[in-house]
Amino acid sequence: MRRRLTVLIAMFSVVTMVVLLSVRGCSNDGDGSSGSVSSAGAARSGATVDPTDGSAADDGSSDESFSDKSGSGRVRSQSASRSMFKAAMPAPAQPERDLTAQASAALAGVFSGARYSVSVVDLSNAGTLVDIDSSQVFASASTYKLFVAHSMVTAVELGEMTWDSPLNGMTLQQCLTTMIVDSDNECPKAWLMRDNGAGYDKVTQQANALGAKNTTLHYLDVRTTSADLALILTKLYRGEIWNDDDRDMVIGLMKRQQYRSGIPAGIGGNGTVADKVGFRDSYLHDAGIVYSGKGDYAFVIMTSGSSWTAIANASAALYQLL
């Protein structure tokens, strides 16, 4: 009797354990805790999410393997981390634009049969946008007067002269004005012929010191390049060579200069142009600062065997590329 009772107790214990295990298994299948366990397991295993690339940790699971209760919290955490990382990243530097290839294609028909050179500089950063044979040397015609203007202003700022100093029967201020506005030739000649013609070498040295290495002034032979003219325009605009009052005064004279058939005609109502032209024999040049809604630029177009209409068309085409 005692042995039979012992067997029954043992059987009852086994059945009870089976029932308890079955009930616990059903509970685990129904409350979503398996996902939580996976999440906790991933955390215990050291698995993390890299906020820089938005990918899941290398734990063999994706966001979809997590339940709404545990997984969506993790997804929101990843999104927030990525947003914080992006906010902390500095804006990438804008690369300098190079429009030379497009400009060459656009101008090929404009200057058909002519020799030409073009420089366009973004004055916000002094970056060259267009460089078409910019080191090609041309007879400067009257564009050399920009370098003479630099020499005159420098002499005043150094105290060597005043704007009331006499030159060619007028004041230095009057000479500078008529040289830029009317493209007068006598005042710059008088400036260069000072000290028995030493002015030619002095202005050449001053131009070279600016970085205009291909600019030379000799009696009846004055040469420069579109790159050198763009350089002095850039330094003028950016206030790198004179004080602000003298810079504004010279730019104001350039805005008033009377020969407007080149770059100003091409820009038209899109902006204001402060420029200096040059024309002699077959040479037609225009070098100017363009103030526009697209920004401010130095435009220099030097030609041999072309026309003012072509220069105007070229400046319009260049402006459209900006």
From TrEMBL:
Domain of life, source organism: Bacteria
Example GO molecular function: beta-lactamase activity
InterPro entries xrefs: Beta-lactam/transpept-like (IPR012338), Beta-lactam_cat (IPR045155), Beta-lactam_class-A (IPR000871)
Region (Disordered): 29-97
Keyword Hydrolase among UniProt keywords: yes
Stretches assigned to coiled coil: none
Residue intervals of the Beta-lactamase class A catalytic domain: 117-303
Keyword terms of this UniProt record: Hydrolase
Extent of Low complexity compositional bias: 34-59
UniProt record, GO biological process: beta-lactam antibiotic catabolic process; response to antibiotic
Protein name listed in UniProt: Serine hydrolase
Organism of this sequence: Bifidobacterium bifidum
